[in-house]
Design a protein that fits this description.
By secondary structure, this protein is α+β, with helices and mostly antiparallel strands. The protein is 54% helix and 19% strand. The radius of gyration is 31 Å and the shape is rod-shaped. The N and C termini lie far apart (71 Å).
């Protein structure tokens, strides 16, 4: 393999072929040149490797990325427009205290409620705003200008 030693890397390229049965096939072709030091003759070798599945996977991943970006764009507008149940005064108070930097124990003390009751309020807030966690709920409420 004197060619690989001289040139550093083996040249290769992708090729989209059509088989006799009219199927499309992606092939990665590598080209090697073997030079015999004894006879000074060259031997050209082409290696073909079927990469159809890898190509399909790459195209599928790209489609998924494009769809997820579209979905994220739709999600933002849908969140803005989605109707929500109105938040109670207690829930708004909880929001204000958390955005002021208070932790759960401090909020419970200030509002004279237990941590279990506070968790119940957060559960109802998440249901009303269609969110999954406290950070998402706070960001959603700020975005909707609820707080």
């Amino acid at each position: 393999m004197e060619c690989a030693k001289k040139h550093g890397k083996i040249p290769k390229f992708n090729l989209n072929l059509q088989t006799r049965s009219w199927h499309r096939l992606w092939v990665n072709v590598s080209k090697l040149v073997f030079e015999s030091s004894r006879t000074a003759q060259r031997l050209l070798i082409h290696l073909a490797h079927d990469t159809s599945e890898q190509k399909k996977t790459g195209q599928l991943v790209q489609k998924m990325m494009n769809l997820s970006q579209e979905f994220m764009g739709l999600g933002k507008s849908a969140v803005r427009a989605a109707p929500i149940s109105s938040l109670s005064e207690q829930e708004l108070s909880i929001f204000r205290l958390f955005t002021a930097g208070k932790n759960s124990a401090e909020v419970g003390k200030l509002l004279h409620i237990s941590l279990q009751t506070l968790r119940g309020h957060w559960h109802h807030i998440n249901q009303k705003l269609r969110t999954q966690n406290r950070l998402e709920a706070v960001m959603n409420a700020i975005h909707r200008k609820l707080i």
